[in-house]
Structure formats: structure tokens, C-alpha cells
Amino acid sequence: MRRRNPLPYLLILPSFLLAAAVIIWPVYDLVQIASNDVNRFGQLRGFNDFANFTALFADPNFLAAVGRTALWTVAVVAGAILVSVPVALILNSDFYGRDIARVIVMLPWAVSLTMTAIVWRWALNGESGMLNSGLRALGLIDTNIQWLASASTAFPMEIAIGILVTIPFTTTIFLGGLSSIPGDLYEAASLEGASGWQQFREITLPLLRPFLNIAIVLNTIYVFNSFPIIWVMTQGGPANSTDILVTHLYKLGFRIGQLGQASAVSLVMFALLLFFTIVYVRLAMREERAHQGA
Amino acid sequence: MKTIWQKIALAGVSLAALTAAASAGTVRVTVAEYSSKTGPYFAEAEKAFEAANPGIDIQFEVVPWDNLLQKLTTDIAGGSNADLSIIGTRWLVDFVQQGVAAPLDEYITPEFKGRFIDTFLTPSIMDGKTYGLPIAASARAMYYNKSLFEKAGVSEPPKTWAELTDTAKKISALGDGVYGFGLQGKEIETDVYFYYAMWSYGGEIVEADGTSGLDSQAAIDAAKLYKALIDEGATEPGVTSYNREDVQNLFKQGKIGMMMTAPFLSGQIKAEAPDLQYGVAPIPAGPNGDQGTYGVTDSIILFENSQNKAEAWKFLDFLFSTEWRVKFTVNEGFLPVQKEEAADPHFVNDADLKVFASLLPNARFAPVIAGWEEIAEKTSNALQSIYLGQGEVEATLKAAAAEANTVLGK
Amino acid sequence: MSKKLKRSIIAWLLLAPLVVLVFFPFAVMFITAIKPQTEVLSPHWWPHEPRWRNFIDMWAATNFGQALWNSVVVSTFATLGAIVISIPSAYAMSRFRFRGREAYRQFLLITQMLSPIVLVVGLFRVIASFGLIDNIGAVTFVYMAFNIAFTVWMLQSYFATVPKDLEEAAWIEGASRFQTLVKVFLPLVTPAIAVTAIFTFINAWNEFVIALTLLRRQESYTLPIQVFSLVAGRYTVEWHHVMAATFVATLPVAVLFAWLQRYLVRGLALGAVK
């Protein structure tokens, strides 16, 4: 029997304690609240047979929000990745003004999401918004578009803004990944006469894959839980038509005072994310192994 | 290992004890931030009070209004709420039912009670006990743009909703991004904007038998009226993207003919659009001459778990002296809640405020029911689908009434 | 050289739509910030006369300096703390094979999955029970703890891409593990640490929900809630001040980006080691 080396455990201990401290107690609290009858101030009134969960699944608004959250998450994450890969490739190549370009691409990140959303809401105002006034000046439209009046324009706009603010994070991850690919691989490929596209498919993409996986998993988690954009711009309205799970949860918990149901939503969201991540990580790892085998 | 944890726990306890000790004689007050003048006003009040009452330390927490309810919820859940807090009087029921708010009757002298205008104190009284003092009050009236009226050839503000429809169409016909009636279709008080018409048609939010009045004929007529205004282009386009501030902004820009809102718009117009020619008129009457305005108060309450009730009361007594009331009400553009305050020249000589004050006898307040916010939310949602044309008026209102009845327990 | 010029033109053309989209909100912010109050609501783009004084007025009216300082303190210490604590963990995970390594990785990921909005109720109770409400230190600690999972994750995936050859060479020369770590390994991964630090700093800089719940008095507000309190639920919003404040609040981060840019570029050199 080999004695186990305690060093790695000692090394991870501080981070474990910290991460656990802010998670475990609140989660315990959450489970308590979700499975109890609870008043609007979070004072428990006794176990209630999961009534909070049954109420939730009987609520058409909740079910609609689940579907919309899926759409929101997939659209924003996919959109951000589709834009970020080429952007990262460009920013990784050598051209004049690259440093400035990188700073510009990172800029949306410098503003808190809440403020970005407030500025966009201000700019998207139908009658006095600067977007309409800009589009009119360019002759692109002649009547004002009421961007936030209905979900058919508001939700796509929210998704677009979601993509825009997700790009900096995603691009940075990819840039980090691209920087770890040695240049001589491309040189060798060029000598063998591989086209740019072939180089991308055969060298860049496989080596970028772990970073792609990180980007997908982390972005999915963040976007799924992202609150400010939709809250500030439409508060999930009109008539709940842009509600996603977090905004629904916020209304339940802090508007209507159903803390029990709100906590139940939170746990359902947690379960959904957990399910997604497990499935994704499994698939991604299988694929990675398959690649290594090939 | 155990000892370490015990030490940590002890440290925590002693820390908590320390803060508790420090808080003897300290009165913490949570206040809503109504405007950029709110913070400085309370800072000034704090200084003046502490100078006059050495030994009592006042601490203010100025909270953005939109987050006030959330903050109070977490505070109370965590047991670290302040001693006093401003709340929307419509939330008071929940606070009283959960035993969070303390009755003030043992402190209130007849003289103190006599300072208030009854209309505004009544909503804070429940089961014969006073749980809050009205600190901010407003009512609603109709603002109209005189220049647009002139251009459209209308000389008088409309007295009935039929006249309003007519006038609104005439103003919208002027074109050039000008619209007759500013209709709010988003966020807080979307439902209230609808009640103006509903009350005029003789409807009630909660009927005598305790059920929702949303499926009454009055509600249906009012919704049809608003829908017709939207369809005929008499309102600004895309009403569901305009909250109260957005509609007010349109009014300040001179882009809409009429809108209902609170007295504070007058002050904003003076600062931001001083050239605007506007007037204030009562909310139009319905076919049977019914009229109604929305009265709303915010109350300051004392928490049941406060350790410094006597000191807190002392501060309330100070805050509700005429001098400090006048300062607050003028700053924020609210209505005076006290008799002596109302006699101040600031209010007596203000033509706009006179209109508001004259409407008070017809003022209705949010009904005193638990779950009021939920009903407001459901009503607003129903209205939004009607305004968007996604739901047929009667069916949508009936469904909303059924949901409201569930909340009401009927 | 002309080849690079051609490439540059193509690169900028491709980036152009994104650049426009990125600058649009900044343009809105900046132009609204310099408008006189009476013109703020008009949709025309350029004000009749730019009102630079707005920035000075805003600074005083919004208690900006204090909030800026609070944000700098909170973000800096949260970042430093998170990085210092994460490096050993990430090092352990990328350089040791030990039981529970994969499980720990997954635990870290799971901690990221809870929606902060409701977590905040439980968190608030814990902080309140220690009497640490309205304490900037407590907020710093919470930010640090919340970011740990992320920093460990990022660092260990960057660390894993660093080849072991150099460290092994150092061992052979008789250097201890600790010496190797400090002298060989850390210099190699500085870019990765810098990048991760940026992430953490920005998360802390922009964090909103926790600060809003845990901080009480204006004197302890961080920038996002200070700016937000100018907008949320007031009966009237001084948009020119709000926009000026937002604009100024982004400057420190923009400067940080520009400065740390070099590290990002040096990250490229990392690949050369392999």
C-alpha cells in the first residue's frame, strides 16, 4: 500500500473551504425554504408536501418560461461562440492596430450588465430613442420601430445584446487557447500545402476544443442565470412574453412574495443546469477520447 | 478541531454582541430615494435632530425605490431590519399580518393625530390601530398641453372620456410625431392607469362581495375604450413599451396632448422643459358622471423587533413637524399630508396643486388586501395582452378576474 | 510589409460591424452625458452646445469619488485574494494525479450553477448572523469566495497547457518543488494569471445583486449600485448624470484592459515553449 501524498489535498483545501462556505449554507437554506410553507419574509411555517413544486408545474407561465429560457440560452451562447471564434482568429493574427482592436472588443465588458441594459433601453425607446433617430437619419426606416413594445422585436433585441456582452469573455478564452497553439504547426501545414480552411479544421479546431468546451459550459451557466438584460429592458413583459426563469423567479420572490415557490424555481434551475452539464461533459469527454484514439 | 470551531463561533457571537452594544441609542431608518433631493434632505434632518437630541444616533439607509421591497424582504428574513422604514402603504397589510410592523397607538397623542389630514392617515389604520404614518402622498390628475390643444382647435380640457377620445383624435391628426393621449402600458402602475377609466365607468377594483371587479361591465367598457384609442392612433404607438416615466418624457417633449400622472411632473417640467405650455385638469368623467383619482401614500413604519422604539418615536415626532414636512413635500413634489403643512404659502399659491387637492374627496386608495401586488401584476399582464391585441377584451379580463379571485380567496 | 497592410485592412473591415455595435452604447452614453438637461430627452444626436460641466456636477451630485474608491478596493482585494488562494489549487490539479481530482473539478463547476438572485437570501442570513451587513470587507470576502471556483477552473486549464519539460529540467538540477514553482513555473504562467485576474476583477467590478443586498449606506456603495440608485424608481431620472457616471465608471476598466493587453500578447509566446 502506497501512502497517499497529502500535498495536493493541502493545496486545494483553502479554495475548497471558501467555495463551500458561500455555497453550502445558502443551498441548505434554499432547500428548507422550498420544501416549507413560508411567508413573504422567509419565516418558515412548516413542511408542506412539496406544494411549492406542484404549484410551479401547474403554472403555464412557469412552463413557458422554461421553454423561453432554453431558447434564450441556446441563442445567446451559440451566437456568441459563432461570432467569437472568427473574432479571436482575427485578433490572433498579426495586423496593424491589433492591440487597439483587442481593447475595443473587450470594451462591452467594462460596463456592468445593468448599465449596458439601461443604456440600450434608453437607446431603443420608440419615440426618443437614439437608435430610431440614427436609423432614420441613415434613411433605413421612415417610421419609428417600437422595439420593446412586443416580444417579437424585444426578445430578439435582448438576445442580440446578450450576444454582444458575451463576446468579450468568450473571445478572451479563445485567445488564450489560440495562444497555446504553436505557430510551427501552421508552418508545417502550409509547407504541405494545406489551405486556410483545412488548417482551421485540422489544427485550430481540435486544439481549441477544450477551450470551446469551457466556453460552452461556463457561458451556458452564466447566460442561463443572467438577469439584468431582460429585467431592465422589459421586466419579462409585455404580458410575461419575454420572461425567462430568473426574471420569473425574481417576480415570484420579491414582487409577489412567494419565497417558497421562488426557491423551488431556483432548485429546478439548478437541476436543469446540472443535467445539462453532466450530459455535455460526458459527450465532450467521449469525443475528446475518440479524437485521441484516431 | 472542535475548539477551533468553538473559537470561531465565539468570535462571531462577540462580534454580534459588539454591534448590538453599539446600537443602543442608535435608530436605523430605511428610506426610499424619491429623487436626488431625498438623500440630502434626510442627511440634513439627521444633523438637526442629533444636535437637538444628544445621545440618539440616527443612521439612514437610502434605498432605490425599485429595490425597496426586495431589500426589506431580505432584511426581515435575515432579522437585521432597521428600526423605522418607509414602505408603500399598499404593502402594509402583509407587514401587519406577519407581525412585522408595530402599532403606534401608545405613542400617538391626540395632538399628533390632529396634525394629519384624515384622508391620508386612514389607509395606515388597520383594525383600529395605526401602523404607519403617511410620509409621502400623491394623487393623480390630467396634464394637458395647451399649445397642442390650440393647434388642434380645442379650447377646453375634456370633461368626459367621450370628449377625451374626440380631442385625442384631433391632436393625433396633427401628425409629425404628435399623439393625443399618452397611455402607460408597462411596469409599475400600468393597472392604475387603467383604473382611471374603470372608476369613471363606475367600476371597482374589489367589489362589495370581495370578488375582483375586473370582469365587471365597467372594466370591459374601459378596456374597450383604451383599445379603441390605440387602434385609432389616438395614443402613442407601441404603448406596451412605455412606462410612466417614458410617457412623462413624451409629455415634456410636447409630443402628447394629455396624460394622467402625479403632482411631481409639474416640478420636472419646470426644470427640464420650462417653455412647455401646460395645464392640469381633473380626470374626465364617465357616462354616468362617475369620477375617480388614485390616491397613494407611502408610510413610515416602526418594526416590532426594534430595540429603540422610544428613540425612534422621538425622531418620528421630529420628522412630522411642520417645518420638516414642508421642506420634504416641496422637494419631492408631493401633496401635503398635514393640515398646517397644507396652509404653507408654497402649496396655497400653487395652481397645479390646487387641482390635485380638489380631487382628493374622490380619491381611491389601493384596496387593503393581502397579495395586492400579485393582483396588480396579473391585471397589468391582462391589460398588456389587450393593448397588444393578443387577447379579446372580455375573455382576457374574465380570466384575470378569476386569477385575482384565487388570490383573494373567493 | 504590404502584405501585412492588406491583412490589416481586411481584419478591420471584418471587425467593423462589431466595432460599431460596441461603440454605439458608448456613443449614446457620451452624447447624453454632455447634453444640457433641457435637451436630454430630444432624440437628436449632437447637443447644441456640449456641456462638459455635467461631469463635474455629476461627480459631486452622485458621491462618485467614494463609490469609485470602494469599487477599486473591493475589486482589487477580491482579485488578489482569489488568485493567491487559487494558484496552489490549480497547480495541484494540473501537476498531481490524486484521487478526487475530477470530483473536485466538478464540485467547482457545480458551485457556479446556482442563480445568485435566490442564493442571496441565504447568503444574507449568514452575513447578517455575523453582524457584517454594510461591511465592505464582507463584500470583498464574498466576491473572493464566489470567484474561487472560476479562477481555479481557469487557471488549472491554462496550467495544463504548460509543458512540464522546464520544471523537470529544474528538478534534475536539484531545485525543490517550491523553488521550481516560483522560479520556473509562475513566470511561465503570468499571462494566464493576468487574464484570469482580469476576469475576476471585472466580475467584482460589475457585480450588482450581492452589493445591493449587503451594502446599506451611500458611503459604502460600490459603483454599480451607486449608479443604479440614480435610475431605479426615482420619480425623475437625471439621465445626463447617469450617463456621465456610467461613462466614467467604465474608464478604469478600459485602462486596465489597455495595460494588461501586453500580457495577453505575451500569452502568445507561451505557445513557443511547446
UniProtKB/TrEMBL annotation, chain A:
Annotated Pfam families: BPD_transp_1
Residue stretches in coiled coil: none
UniProt-annotated location(s): Cell membrane
Domain ABC transmembrane type-1 residues, every copy: 66-280
Gene Ontology cellular component annotations, sorted alphabetically: plasma membrane
Keywords for this protein: Cell membrane, Membrane, Sugar transport, Transmembrane, Transmembrane helix, Transport
Membrane topology: Multi-pass membrane protein
GO-annotated biological processes: transmembrane transport
Chain ranges passing through the membrane: 7-28, 70-91, 103-123, 159-178, 211-233, 259-281
Keyword Cytoplasm listed: no
Origin superkingdom: Bacteria
InterPro entries referenced in this protein's UniProt entry, alphabetically: ABC_transporter_permease (IPR051393), MetI-like (IPR000515), MetI-like_sf (IPR035906)
Keyword rRNA-binding tagged: no
Family label: Belongs to the binding-protein-dependent transport system permease family.
Protein name stated in the entry: Multiple sugar transport system permease protein
TrEMBL record, chain B:
GO CC terms: ATP-binding cassette (ABC) transporter complex, substrate-binding subunit-containing
Signal peptide annotation: 1-24
Any GO BP annotation: transmembrane transport
Coiled coil: none
MF (Gene Ontology): maltose binding
InterPro entries: SBP, SBP_1_CS
Keywords per UniProt: Periplasm, Signal, Sugar transport, Transport
Keyword Signal recorded: yes
One Pfam family matching this protein: SBP_bac_1
Record's keyword annotation contains Kinase: no
Database matches in Gene3D superfamilies: Periplasmic binding protein-like II
PROSITE patterns on file: SBP_BACTERIAL_1
Record-stated family: Belongs to the bacterial solute-binding protein 1 family.
Name recorded for this polypeptide: Multiple sugar transport system substrate-binding protein
Organism: Prosthecomicrobium pneumaticum
Source lineage: Bacteria, Pseudomonadati, Pseudomonadota, Alphaproteobacteria, Hyphomicrobiales
From TrEMBL, chain C:
Coiled coil residues, start to end: none
SUPFAM superfamilies: MetI-like
GO cellular component: plasma membrane
Chain ranges passing through the membrane: 12-34, 67-87, 107-130, 136-155, 184-205, 239-260
Membrane-topology annotation of the record: Multi-pass membrane protein
Occurrences of domain ABC transmembrane type-1 (ranges): 68-260
Pfam families linked: BPD_transp_1
Domain of life: Bacteria
Transmembrane helix in keyword set: yes
Localization (cell): Cell membrane
InterPro entries: BP-dep_ABC_trans_perm (IPR050901), MetI-like (IPR000515), MetI-like_sf (IPR035906)
Function: Part of the ABC transporter complex MalEFGK involved in maltose/maltodextrin import. Probably responsible for the translocation of the substrate across the membrane.
Family: Belongs to the binding-protein-dependent transport system permease family. MalFG subfamily.
Protein name: Maltose/maltodextrin transport system permease protein MalG
Source species of the chain: Prosthecomicrobium pneumaticum
Classification lineage: Bacteria, Pseudomonadati, Pseudomonadota, Alphaproteobacteria, Hyphomicrobiales
